[in-house]
Structure to design on (235 residues):
């Protein structure tokens, strides 16, 4: 089954079209906030996977991912700066965005914009809209570009290498990735989880028993039974 998927995608992720697809996906993911529709990060990982299979070059997959991400981020930033601010000032109240909230967003990006741009690169939803919001908040472009390039390079190379590592693991284990092999793997994982759950439950019972000192159980039971006209007995 896995082999069929790989063979189906192979014509689309071979050189040179594979580099174009990876770059275009990372560009569209951030330039127009299409991260839900265009899974750029997933395609970078797949590009690294096919690099391990010899269809692409790992270095060029990383370059395509980084270039596409940086260009997309900056287009998103320019869209937010050129059109987003005016749109929100005119129609923001319909979206519960008041002038006071816009001012707070401006202040936030002035104080924390750099780390937001860098770390937002690694968070899917923030990656799709955060760069547009940086433009809306009129974050200084040079500062935006510096942190964006740093985050994009780490993100692009990291995901390409991750896909390459996954490809190496696949080549090692592909002989076991048959329907029967996958079924055995699922059963094995279920058995491991079940035994761990049983062990934790047994440990919790043992811990509760050790915490209950001798005589407490009978004393507690006796105190519960000592009733006088439906009320606890006096000491």
């Amino acid at each position: 089954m896995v082999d069929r998927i790989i063979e189906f995608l192979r014509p689309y992720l071979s050189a040179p079209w594979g580099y174009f697809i990876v770059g275009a996906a990372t560009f569209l993911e951030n330039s127009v906030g299409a991260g839900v529709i265009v899974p750029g990060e997933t395609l970078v990982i797949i590009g690294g996977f096919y690099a391990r299979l010899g269809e692409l070059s790992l270095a060029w997959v990383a370059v395509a991912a980084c270039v596409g991400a940086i260009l997309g981020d900056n287009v998103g930033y320019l869209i937010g700066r050129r059109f987003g601010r005016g749109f929100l000032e005119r129609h923001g109240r319909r979206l519960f965005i008041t002038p006071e909230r816009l001012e707070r967003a401006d202040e936030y990006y002035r104080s924390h914009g750099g780390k937001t741009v860098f770390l937002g690169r690694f968070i899917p939803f923030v990656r799709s809209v955060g760069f547009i919001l940086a433009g809306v908040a009129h974050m200084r472009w040079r500062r935006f570009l510096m942190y964006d390039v740093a985050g994009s390079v780490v993100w692009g190379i990291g995901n390409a290498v991750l896909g390459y590592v996954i490809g190496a693991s696949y080549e090692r284990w592909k002989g076991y990735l048959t329907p029967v092999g996958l079924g055995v793997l699922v059963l094995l994982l279920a058995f491991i989880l079940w035994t761990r759950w049983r062990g934790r439950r047994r440990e919790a019972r043992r811990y509760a028993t050790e915490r209950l000192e001798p005589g407490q159980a009978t004393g507690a039971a006796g105190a519960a039974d000592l009733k006088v006209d439906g009320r606890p007995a006096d000491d």
